[in-house]
Design goal:
CATH topology of one domain: FAD/NAD(P)-binding domain
CATH class of one domain: Alpha Beta
Shape: globular
Helix content: 25-40%
Strand content: 15-25%
Distance between the termini: 28 Å
């Protein structure tokens, strides 16, 4: 048995940030357990067709958290990044409009603008109706029938779940806040109005995929990272971890960044809580490389059409200079719509990179009804015993990487001073 002061489960952005913060505070007794052969989690990159390919989907560094960027630039200096103004678009059956849709309907023809404006004006939030509890009802209430049916409902169905009313509404503040007045004003001045979405400006490495920053962070603490160390059991009452290979670790403090459902055994925890963990839902995605360059200035394109397999296109040559091609992001359950039969994951052929794809079993935590109550009880119970959930999976929350880094920095300050 090996014992350390801090045991960190998972070598993705959350675990790597927390570990590097410990090192910078002078702490030496810590260990990161990572089940893969390399660090980075969902933000890992590979080289496909001579250029970077982000295997977990499109990940970018937002500019709106300066302290996060300052921290990350210690590993990958600012001069090694390009700064972009976001250009994301929505393909509405061949009519392409900038995102968010409600701020950019002025890009449509006049008749469509009138139709969409009339629909938004009749939305429940603009006509004094009370806010509904169900997800689909909320979308109609907030955005009106046209945007709900043409974009928001089919897109969320493609990305998250076939049964949308299993999702709660508590997380929808992430949506851009564009009022009817903002929409009308944008149509009059031909310019988007209202609060814009995240990543309005973002960084992306000049010569690498997004995984490069996490690879360098892992190198910084390489003696303290164990690869191929898949955790199977967490003994909460004694802060002990066992791996699939049979290794055992104890710690004064455990920080877990891995999905709670990945623990094959959780001991020292009430049965009610272990049963609640089984109710946590997530989606898996496939990212698939295509060698064709697309004739668009957009960095990524949302595709709500249910007849199209993928939900998002990442246009690689528009944010990764010198590269070509694009990649498609598809919820795994929908990949059966591809014409060919595929295996469980990886690369279909080492010699044909145009058909290269990756599957991330854990891509998006689903914000289902009842999830906040489950996580509040779970995280509170564990924290009282020196075990802390951190990041997208430790907190089962749809956090972007910049949010994850900020949370890891704050937790390190809290626990290590």
């Amino acid at each position: 048995m090996e014992k350390v002061k801090y045991l960190i489960l998972g070598g993705g952005p959350a675990g790597l940030t927390f570990a590097n913060c410990l090192k910078r505070k002078g702490e030496t007794s810590f260990l990161v357990l990572e089940k893969e052969e390399e660090a980075g989690g969902l933000c890992r990159s590979a080289v496909v067709d001579g250029s970077p390919f982000d295997i977990g989907g499109g990940h970018f560094l937002d500019v709106k958290r300066p302290k996060v960027n300052e921290f990350l630039f210690q590993f990958l200096p600012e001069q090694e990044w390009n700064l972009f103004r976001r250009d994301s678009r929505i393909d509405l059956g061949g009519m392409v409009v900038s995102h968010p849709l409600e701020a950019n309907i002025w890009q449509m023809d006049l008749e469509r603008q009138v139709t969409y404006l009339a629909s938004i004006a009749k939305a429940g939030c603009n006509s004094g109706l009370p806010c509904p509890e169900k997800f689909t009802d909320w979308i109609f209430w907030k955005l009106g029938r046209r945007i709900a049916e043409d974009y928001m409902l089919p897109y969320n169905q493609k990305m998250f779940a076939d049964e949308l009313d299993t999702l709660g509404t508590y997380w929808l503040e992430k949506l851009p806040d564009v009022s009817f007045e903002d929409t009308l004003r944008s149509c009059l001045i031909h310019k988007p109005c209202g609060r814009q979405p995240g990543h309005a400006s973002f960084y992306y490495p000049k010569h690498y995929g997004y995984g490069e920053i996490w690879r360098r962070m892992a190198q910084e603490i390489s003696p303290c990272v164990r690869y191929h160390a898949e955790v199977s059991c967490l003994e909460c009452d004694v802060r002990r971890v066992r791996t699939v290979s049979g290794d055992t670790y104890e710690a004064d403090i455990i920080v877990t960044t891995i999905p709670w459902r990945e623990f094959k055994s959780l001991t020292g925890m009430p049965e009610e809580m272990t049963n609640a963990i089984k109710e946590l839902k997530h989606s898996a995605i496939e990212t698939r490389y295509c060698g064709e360059n697309l004739d668009t200035p957009a960095q990524w394109i949302y595709v709500p059409d249910l007849k199209v397999t993928w939900h998002r296109i990442l246009v690689r040559h528009n944010f990764c200079p010198g590269s070509r091609g694009h990649w498609l992001e598809t919820r795994q359950e929908r990949t059966a719509m591809y014409p060919e039969t595929k295996s469980a994951g990886g690369c279909e052929s080492e010699h044909n990179e145009n058909t290269c794809y990756y599957v991330s079993d854990y891509a998006y935590p689903l914000n289902t009804v009842g999830k906040p109550e489950i996580m509040e009880k779970l995280l509170g119970y564990c924290a009282a015993r020196g075990i802390y959930g951190l990041g997208r999976w430790g907190e089962h929350a749809h956090h972007n990487s910049d949010v994850v880094v900020e949370k890891a920095m704050k937790l390190a300050d809290q626990l290590c001073g």
